[in-house]
């Protein structure tokens, strides 16, 4: 079960392509599968690359997108859960 | 679809180990006036499709303007690219989506290390970024792969990769030998080439996407190529009409042996007529060569034959380690051909 105190990093086999800063495509080189990220998903992915701490990412979303703490937490945990299932990110420690 | 291959520029951001020096020597770009001549003259001869090559064609400073001109003139287009700049330039293509036949990305290995070893670190992922854009924006794309000693065992992997990634096709082509490919031991021998070809023919049968060999593969058809059938017209960045895009810029000092004329000096129609005459002579000499006993088995590789015909591989005699070195036409063969010419005249 993924929690906010986890640190998560993008899998090095994943290539991200940003489209005008508003959306992005992820390509998993291991599975050859494509995925799209919306603007919020892209921001979460960017923050994974820079810090990786989910709690910090959730706080950044609250301030940048003007959402409640609950909504930010839900967005982060839902997306990270999907990314883990698709082997696009790795939990590096807790 | 009769088409014109246009080398927009010989600028390139990469230095691929199997490329001709003249394809990335950054001497210049196709003039817009030359393109205007092409657009005005080509349709009258049945050409309705333009394929842009280079160098890296997207590095032409007027790339967006060129696409506008081409589409306004009613042509369809496609281009070959290494994909490095694609995430920056794809927006220039989107307005012309309905006129785009497809984009061909150069991919010289199914594995990142293989491709990057030939084309430079990071280039594989740039291609992957480029095709990611294509998938989202519904831009049709294919892959082109030059067969070398480094990737000869990856053809099936290439087919799997291309299929999974959504490519509409995969084209393999043989390497044209250069001094660098010799030093890097990239060239396959004739027998090795044919083994890879046999694999490709098998892949054609089992994969759902079109998998083809580019012209240049072994064939007993003496005239298999579209330029020789007047279905393809090749123009380099200087406005020179040349026999074939595979030969353009090739030659170790004999780069211009295949130049038929320049659009700065003659009209498109005159160039077309000259190409017909040049092809007629080529046909005649190849038939003679085939029938007079000088034809070697290696000459059934059409690009190899033309490389010899246009004296683009004489330098290979100085590189005995290259598996094609002893296949270069000898002076005796050339002299005998000349004697035959004189006997007929």
Brief description of this entry?
With 94 residues, chain A is α+β, with helices and mostly antiparallel strands. In chain A, 44% of the residues lie in helices and 28% in strands. Chain A has helices spanning 39-50, 54-65, 69-85, and strands spanning 7-10, 14-19, 23-28, 33-37, 89-93.
Any key phrases for this structure?
heterodimer; A: 94 residues; alpha+beta; three-stranded antiparallel sheet; two-stranded antiparallel ribbon; 3 helices; globular; B: 345 residues; alpha/beta; ten-stranded mixed sheet; 11 helices; 14% strand
Supply the number of helical segments of chain B. Answer: 11
Largest sheet of chain B: 10 strands, mixed
Structural class of chain A: alpha+beta
Please give the radius of gyration of chain A in angstroms.
12 Å
Which ranges of chain B are low-confidence, i.e. pLDDT below 50, for 5 or more consecutive residues?
334-345
The share of residues in extended strands of chain A comes to 25-35%
- For the biggest β-sheet of chain A, the strand order reads 2-3-4
Total helical elements of chain A? 3
- The average pLDDT score of chain A comes to 94
Which chain pair has the greatest contact? A-B, 12 and 14 residues
């Amino acid at each position: 079960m993924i929690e906010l105190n986890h640190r998560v990093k993008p899998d090095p086999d994943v290539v991200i392509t940003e489209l005008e800063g508003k959306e992005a495509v992820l390509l998993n080189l291991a599975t050859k599968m494509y995925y799209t990220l919306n603007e919020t998903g892209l921001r979460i992915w960017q923050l994974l690359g820079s810090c990786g701490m989910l709690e910090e990412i959730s706080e950044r979303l609250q301030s940048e997108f003007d959402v409640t703490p609950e909504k930010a937490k839900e967005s982060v945990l839902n997306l990270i859960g999907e990314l883990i299932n698709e082997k696009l990110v790795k939990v590096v420690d807790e | 679809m009769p088409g014109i291959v246009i080398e927009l520029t010989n600028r390139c951001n990469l230095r691929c180990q199997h490329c001709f020096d003249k394809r990335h020597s950054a001497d210049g770009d196709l003039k817009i006036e030359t393109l205007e001549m092409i657009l005005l003259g080509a349709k009258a001869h049945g050409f309705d499709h333009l394929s842009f090559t280079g160098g890296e064609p997207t590095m032409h400073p007027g790339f967006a303007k060129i696409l506008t001109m081409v589409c306004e003139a009613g042509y369809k287009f496609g281009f070959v690219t290494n994909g490095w700049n694609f995430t920056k330039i794809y927006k220039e293509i989107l307005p012309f989506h309905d006129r785009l036949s497809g984009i061909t990305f150069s991919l010289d290995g199914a594995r990142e290390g293989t491709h990057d070893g030939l084309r430079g670190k990071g280039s594989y992922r740039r291609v992957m970024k480029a095709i990611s854009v294509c998938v989202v924006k519904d831009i049709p794309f294919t892959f082109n792969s030059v067969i070398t000693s480094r990737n000869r065992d990856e053809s099936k992997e290439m087919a799997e990769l291309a299929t999974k990634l959504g490519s509409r096709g995969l084209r393999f082509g043989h390497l044209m030998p250069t001094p660098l490919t010799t030093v890097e031991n990239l060239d396959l021998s004739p027998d090795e080439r044919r083994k890879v070809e046999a694999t490709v023919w098998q892949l054609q049968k089992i994969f759902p996407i079109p998998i083809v060999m580019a012209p240049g593969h072994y064939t007993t058809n003496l005239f298999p190529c579209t330029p020789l059938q007047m279905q393809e017209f090749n123009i380099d960045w200087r406005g020179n009409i040349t026999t074939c895009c595979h030969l353009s810029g090739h030659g170790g000092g004999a780069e211009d042996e295949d130049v038929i004329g320049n659009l700065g000096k003659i009209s498109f129609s005159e160039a077309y007529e000259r190409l017909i005459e040049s092809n007629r002579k080529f046909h005649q000499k190849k038939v003679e060569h085939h029938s007079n006993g000088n034809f070697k088995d290696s000459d059934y590789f059409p690009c190899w034959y033309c490389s010899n015909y246009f004296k683009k591989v004489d330098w290979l005699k100085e590189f005995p380690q290259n598996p094609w070195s002893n296949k270069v036409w000898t002076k005796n063969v050339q002299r005998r051909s000349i004697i035959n010419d004189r006997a007929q005249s």
